[in-house]
Amino acid sequence: MRHETSIPVMTAEELASLGAGKIAYMRKISGKEIAEAFPNSMEIAPEVLVWALFAADGTPLALADDAGGALSMAFTNDLVPVAIH
Protein backbone atom coordinates (compact mmCIF):
# COMPACT_ATOMS: atom_id res chain seq x y z
CA MET A 1 0.00 0.00 0.00
CA ARG A 2 1.35 3.41 -0.95
CA HIS A 3 0.86 6.49 1.22
CA GLU A 4 1.35 9.94 -0.17
CA THR A 5 2.12 12.77 2.19
CA SER A 6 1.57 16.38 1.34
CA ILE A 7 4.34 18.59 2.69
CA PRO A 8 3.25 22.20 3.18
CA VAL A 9 5.44 24.76 1.47
CA MET A 10 6.46 27.87 3.39
CA THR A 11 7.18 31.18 1.77
CA ALA A 12 10.44 32.96 2.57
CA GLU A 13 8.46 35.46 4.66
CA GLU A 14 6.75 32.70 6.66
CA LEU A 15 10.07 30.99 7.28
CA ALA A 16 11.69 34.27 8.37
CA SER A 17 8.88 34.98 10.86
CA LEU A 18 9.09 31.51 12.38
CA GLY A 19 10.14 32.00 15.99
CA ALA A 20 9.75 35.79 15.87
CA GLY A 21 10.01 37.26 19.35
CA LYS A 22 10.93 33.88 20.84
CA ILE A 23 14.10 32.60 19.12
CA ALA A 24 17.38 34.33 18.42
CA TYR A 25 20.56 33.03 16.89
CA MET A 26 24.11 33.93 17.71
CA ARG A 27 27.22 33.65 15.60
CA LYS A 28 30.68 35.11 15.24
CA ILE A 29 30.96 37.96 12.80
CA SER A 30 33.87 40.06 11.55
CA GLY A 31 34.32 43.80 11.86
CA LYS A 32 33.36 44.12 8.21
CA GLU A 33 30.07 42.26 8.82
CA ILE A 34 29.39 44.43 11.87
CA ALA A 35 29.46 47.55 9.71
CA GLU A 36 26.90 45.94 7.39
CA ALA A 37 24.59 44.44 10.04
CA PHE A 38 24.91 47.21 12.65
CA PRO A 39 25.38 50.41 10.60
CA ASN A 40 25.12 52.71 13.64
CA SER A 41 27.71 50.84 15.71
CA MET A 42 31.24 52.04 16.32
CA GLU A 43 33.86 51.18 13.75
CA ILE A 44 35.74 47.95 14.41
CA ALA A 45 38.75 46.65 12.48
CA PRO A 46 37.58 44.35 9.65
CA GLU A 47 39.56 41.34 10.92
CA VAL A 48 38.21 41.45 14.51
CA LEU A 49 35.71 38.70 15.40
CA VAL A 50 32.90 39.24 17.92
CA TRP A 51 29.66 37.45 18.76
CA ALA A 52 26.41 38.88 17.42
CA LEU A 53 22.84 38.12 18.44
CA PHE A 54 20.15 38.22 15.74
CA ALA A 55 16.37 37.82 15.92
CA ALA A 56 14.95 34.77 14.16
CA ASP A 57 14.24 36.92 11.10
CA GLY A 58 17.85 38.15 10.92
CA THR A 59 17.34 41.52 12.60
CA PRO A 60 20.58 42.43 14.44
CA LEU A 61 20.04 42.75 18.19
CA ALA A 62 23.35 42.92 20.06
CA LEU A 63 27.12 42.51 19.95
CA ALA A 64 29.29 40.84 22.57
CA ASP A 65 32.97 40.07 23.09
CA ASP A 66 32.25 36.41 23.76
CA ALA A 67 29.55 33.77 23.36
CA GLY A 68 28.54 34.12 27.01
CA GLY A 69 27.73 37.78 26.50
CA ALA A 70 25.53 37.04 23.48
CA LEU A 71 23.85 34.22 25.39
CA SER A 72 23.20 36.52 28.34
CA MET A 73 21.61 39.14 26.06
CA ALA A 74 19.28 36.49 24.63
CA PHE A 75 18.19 35.32 28.08
CA THR A 76 17.80 38.90 29.31
CA ASN A 77 15.32 39.50 26.47
CA ASP A 78 13.43 36.21 27.06
CA LEU A 79 14.69 34.70 23.80
CA VAL A 80 15.73 31.08 23.25
CA PRO A 81 19.21 31.25 21.74
CA VAL A 82 20.67 28.92 19.14
CA ALA A 83 24.22 29.05 17.81
CA ILE A 84 25.19 29.11 14.15
CA HIS A 85 28.61 27.57 13.44
What does this structure look like?
- Helix content is 27%, strand content 28%.
- The radius of gyration is 16 Å and the shape is elongated.
- With 85 residues, it is an alpha+beta fold.
- The chain has one domain.
- Strand 2 and strand 3 form a beta hairpin.
- A 4-stranded mixed beta sheet has the order 3-2-1-4.
Q: How many structural domains in the coordinates?
A: 1
- SSE arrangement, N to C: HEHEEHE
Helix percent reads 25-40%
Gap between N and C termini: 42 Å
Question: What is the percentage of strand-forming residues?
Answer: 25-35%
Q: What structural category arises from helix and sheet content?
A: alpha+beta
Please tell me what the overall shape is: elongated
Number of strands: 4
Largest sheet: 4 strands, mixed
Q: Strand order within the widest sheet? A: 3-2-1-4
Q: On the 0-100 scale, what is the average pLDDT?
A: 86
Uncertain regions: pLDDT < 50 for 5+ in a row?
Answer: none
Calculate Rg over CA atoms.
16 Å
- Number of helical segments with 4 or more residues: 3
Q: Topology of this protein?
A:
Layout: H1 12-17, E1 23-30, H2 31-37, E2 49-55, E3 60-64, H3 67-76, E4 80-83
Parallel strand pairs: 1-4
Antiparallel strand pairs: 1-2, 2-3
